[in-house]
Amino acid sequence: MRALLTLFLLISTTTLFAQDDEPELQPLKAVVVNAQTEKAMESVHVVNLTQVIGTITDQNGEFTVSAAVDDIIYFSFLGFKSQKIRVTNDMFKFENTQIALTELAYALEEVIVKPYQLTGYLEIDVKNYPINNSYQYSISGLSVSYEGGNKNPSAVTKVLGAILNPADLLRNLFGKQPNQMRKLRKMKEDDQIRDLLASKFDRETLTELLQIEKVDIEDILNNCNYSKSFITTANDLQILDAVSSCYEEFKVLNRKK
Predict the structure, then answer these.
(1) At residue 23, does pLDDT exceed 90?
(2) Which residues pair with 55 in a beta bridge?
(3) What's the CA gap between 240 and 245, in Å, rounded?
(4) What is the pTM of this model?
């Protein structure tokens, strides 16, 4: 009987410690305002980078997102400086917490337009016109297709070559933030995060979500055979899907090594 009691106490203690390790998620409510006018801001994207969940503010600038103490919340809105805050206990106690975003000042740079010199001869002009050798494919949920690397049977060569290479650039890049890479699927499943990434091309939100540098994203896609034109022109959602595809392919090939 004493042995059973000891075993029960041991299991109970282990369970309590396991529960303590997991952060307690609570609904975090606050309002986003314009720092200059103090007016509420509607449709601001709010992303919990720690839990990988997102939402947007309503017409009163209010939002609710699940969070735990010390989670990092990321705010993004076109024309305003993005902002990150760390969740504190006080933010759960007081629902009137205000997050102020500062408007960016844009300066137009001088643009030099160079006309394309046409000869008037169709055959010559067609030969001189640059050709885009990009291959196109579609992603579920997107209305347009885009280039995603060479689709021939040897398209995996660069990834396979990297895995067989002792220096293994991909392993080094993916290994920098393994926990973030494991969250790739979760990022793709959140509609608010997908909508945010589909509207952006600056890689800012993407680097915050993945916790890697912009140059690392470019290195990953370069080594997974994505073209320079795709890397520079694709929106952040397309880049996320490409990195996710590259990572899944890498895991399969690395497992077979």
Answers:
(1) no
(2) 46
(3) 9
(4) 0.69
